[in-house]
Design brief:
It is built from twelve helices and twelve strands. By secondary structure, the chain is an alpha/beta fold. The protein has an eight-stranded mixed beta sheet with strand order 1-2-4-3-5-8-6-7, with helices on both faces. A four-stranded antiparallel beta sheet has the order 10-11-9-12. Helix 2 crosses helix 8, helix 3 (109-120) packs across helix 8 and helix 6 (241-262) packs across helix 8. The longest helix has 22 residues, at 241-262. The chain is globular. The relative contact order is 0.15. The structure holds zinc ion. Zinc ion (ZN) is lined by residues 79, 81, 84, 217. Zinc ion binds next to loops.
């Protein structure tokens, strides 16, 4: 027999992903368990009424009963950005590649790697990082490009939602995030104000065997993480050179497997452009080597492209899992020791935020998004212009500001304001095109 893969053939709605994961403990007894994460979400209140109310997040643990009781773990998370649909498929593909290929009597080398991996490491998967927002993007008309969770608007306010990947405690509230509630990168009232990010922090606090993590986003075919040079906005971060070497090696291992899918090699870069992200929290606060993986080339590409990207995410996860199982030159015991040496943290509890809220029909200019390239007005420097746009809470898609132009995700209103100030804008995608 051969290595089994390509388990998914179409986009899956968030409820289908949840149902799929709930079926695994019954289908693969002895190989996985599923648990609920404690904090429920604010609650989905959109048009798909069967899904109404606060939702739960889940954790699937995959490992065999062989080997030591405590095994090093790799955490894979479906990003909290609702519109990044590829990742709902990617978590299913990744889970099934482990579950379906644990066959000790099959001599196929990739199958044998899975057996060895699950005998000496564990895979943890959070299949949905933003249950409310994902439902909203999938089911509600005009909300394909919704990114945030569904925190109700404050009294007197009209904008819902927090960007959960700006809500982590490291550098909370600094550059690359916004205090404007209507912004797509609104960081929330305080660090871990959101159940989605607090669940992740509690999970990583409690499971000290986690050494590697992928927060699986889209898009960009890129692997981001903290690095010794810091980023464009958050000035130099102290990633020690020895850790930089480990990160570089992990990127290499991931890219070898990613390339084997369809020839693509993902670029690498710093995430230190955006304050309050998961991977910087994981690395600086938790000694976990965390990545922001940006798979694919669009938020909701044609399904064939989404499936290829999902195979790349699964391949990258297998690479880290193989490494965690101790079969590369990375010293896993020393990474485990560093995790175990951390002091215990207080569990973050739920904060009361829920009140009834009905999403209202917004005029098109409020939800329509244009993906554009932008040259700064009057020959201004790209980096200083980008920094200016960050201050003004624009959604900047480019992470490395090397070329003469920026990639931006703009509302109609923002597009007009930039044109008025003389920026050269080229729209290459109207992101609201119903599929
Ligand atoms: Zn994202």
């Amino acid at each position: 027999m051969a290595f089994r893969q390509r388990f998914v053939t179409s986009y899956l709605d968030p409820l289908a992903v949840e149902t799929e994961f709930k079926s695994y403990p019954g289908k693969y007894p002895g190989l996985c368990t599923l648990e609920e994460l404690p904090l429920a979400t604010h609650g989905y209140t959109g048009v798909h009424t069967p899904a109404h109310g606060p939702r739960k997040m889940y954790l699937l643990r995959i490992s065999s009963s062989n080997g030591p009781a405590t095994k090093p773990a790799v955490l894979l998370m479906r990003s909290p950005h609702a519109r990044e649909w590829i990742n709902g498929i990617a978590v299913v593909e990744a889970a099934l590649e482990f579950l379906e290929n644990y066959r000790a009597d099959d001599p196929d080398p990739l199958v044998q790697q899975i057996v060895t991996t699950l005998d000496s490491a564990e895979i943890l998967i959070v299949p949905e990082g933003n249950p409310d927002g994902a439902l909203y993007s999938f089911f509600d008309p005009g909300q394909l490009m919704w990114r945030k969770n569904l925190r109700p608007p404050p009294s007197g306010g009209s904008c819902a939602g927090v960007d959960c990947n700006r809500n982590f405690s490291r550098y909370f509230g600094e550059a690359g995030s916004s205090s404007v509630q209507c912004s797509d990168v609104y960081h929330g009232p305080q660090a871990f104000s959101e159940p989605e990010s607090a669940n992740i922090a509690n999970l990583v606090n409690g499971r000290r065997n986690i050494i590697f993590a992928i927060d699986s986003h889209s898009y960009g075919q890129a692997i981001y993480r903290p690095n010794p040079n810091g980023g464009t906005y958050i000035s130099s971060l102290p990633v020690p050179l020895a850790d930089h070497a480990i990160y570089t090696r992990l990127e290499q291992l991931m890219n070898e497997r990613i390339q084997s899918v369809n020839g693509a090699v993902y670029s690498t870069g710093s995430t230190s452009n955006h304050a309050g992200t998961s991977d910087e929290y994981l690395f600086f606060e938790q000694n976990v080597f965390g990545f922001d993986l940006e798979c694919g080339q669009d938020f909701q590409p044609p399904v064939e492209d989404a499936l290829t990207a999902s195979l790349e995410v699964a391949a990258a996860t297998r690479a880290l899992a193989w490494c965690a199982s101790g079969h590369t030159d990375v010293n896993i015991q020393s990474l485990l020791d560093r995790r175990m040496a951390l002091d215990a943290r207080e569990t973050i509890s739920a904060r009361p935020a829920r009140k009834s809220w009905t999403p209202i029909e917004l005029p098109p200019e409020r939800w329509r998004r244009f993906i554009c390239t932008c040259r700064p007005p009057g020959g201004r420097n790209v980096i200083s212009y980008a920094s200016d746009l960050q201050e003004r809470a624009f959604d900047i898609a480019s992470d490395d500001l090397i070329g003469p132009e920026l990639e931006l995700i703009l509302s109609a209103e923002e597009l007009v304001s930039l044109l008025r100030e003389g920026a050269h804008i080229e729209v290459f995608k109207d992101a609201y095109a119903e599929k």
